[in-house]
Amino acid sequence: MKNITLDHTYEWEFYSEFMNLPYDIKVAIPSTPPPEDGYPIVYVLDGNAYFSFARDVVRLQSRRTAKTFVEIALIVGIGHLGDDEAVSKRRFYEFTAPAASYIYPERLKKFGKKEHGGAEKLLKFIQLELKPEIEKRFSVNQKKQTLFGHSLSGLFTLWALFTQPKSFQSYLAISPSVWWNNHEIFDYANNFLKHIEQRNGLNLFIAVGEHEAFMVDDAQRLFSQLEGHLEANFYIALGENHASVVPTVISRAFRFAFTH
């Protein structure tokens, strides 16, 4: 494990037996000792892109928790290794659920088909390999765990909530790819609402950029389906698009997670 003492970030390459793949894991450690029940923790998917945002938001705003409502917390970035093409292939595999077949929208057909259906293995990696390693190394409050994802990893965040709701207490899905495989996530949502009677303690934040076209309607429709069945919040970031939305909403998303 590599210890970057300058900014209290630990980084190491973690090999997953479930995924048969390595990951770049980064953990931002607060400079203050953990509370008696351990640090709240946020697992950030697509850590290559979003770990630094998440780390800096928490470090800056947790200095004034009474005003920002953002607490001191551990931030864990789950990143991929490899070039952009390799990362893209892995994302389409890891963040999508197993299915008998996959329906591609026209805009994606020109890129050719990729391997899909690794979401179950990815969640097992997080739950059964990564979490125990993190909890062995650091003091963690297991009752204050959050999962954060954007786009395809936002889709995975929703899928994790709908299939293994006890994995985390808060789920932050930014611009989730609700469109994936002919909107199959709605079927998972329906099954979740049908079979999960006790949803106390489950929190969901969905955000999307105003200029994300059909993704705004998709996110709104999903939120409407879930509203009233668990603690949920929906936010449209005015003036933002798919690429710009995360820096705009991440503070709001974290405030939601830390206050529910």
Question: What are the defining features of this structure?
Answer:
single chain, 260 residues, globular, alpha/beta
Give a written overview of the molecule:
With 260 residues, the protein is α/β, with parallel strands linked by helices. The protein has a 9-stranded mixed β-sheet with strand order 1-2-3-5-4-6-7-8-9, sandwiched between helices. The chain is globular, with a radius of gyration of 17 Å. It starts with a strand and ends with a helix.
Summarize the structure.
With 260 residues, the protein is of the alpha/beta class. The protein has helices spanning 47-61, 65-68, 84-94, 106-109, 119-137, 152-163, 180-183, 185-195, 214-226, 245-258; strands at residues 2-4, 9-16, 21-28, 39-45, 74-79, 140-150, 170-174, 203-209, 231-237. β8 (203-209), α9 and β9 form a beta-alpha-beta unit.
Residue fraction in strands: 15-25%
Adjacency order of strands in the biggest sheet: 1-2-3-5-4-6-7-8-9
Number of β-strand runs: 9
Q: Helix content range of the residues, please? A: 40-55%
Q: Structural class of the secondary structure composition?
A: alpha/beta
List SSEs in N-to-C order: EEEEHHEHHHEHEHHEHEH
- Give the overall silhouette: globular
Radius of gyration: 17 Å
What's the topology here?
Blueprint: E1 2-4, E2 9-16, E3 21-28, E4 39-45, H1 47-61, H2 65-68, E5 74-79, H3 84-94, H4 106-109, H5 119-137, E6 140-150, H6 152-163, E7 170-174, H7 180-183, H8 185-195, E8 203-209, H9 214-226, E9 231-237, H10 245-258
Parallel strand pairs: 4-5, 4-6, 6-7, 7-8, 8-9
Antiparallel strand pairs: 1-2, 2-3, 3-5
Helix pairs in contact: 1-10, 6-8
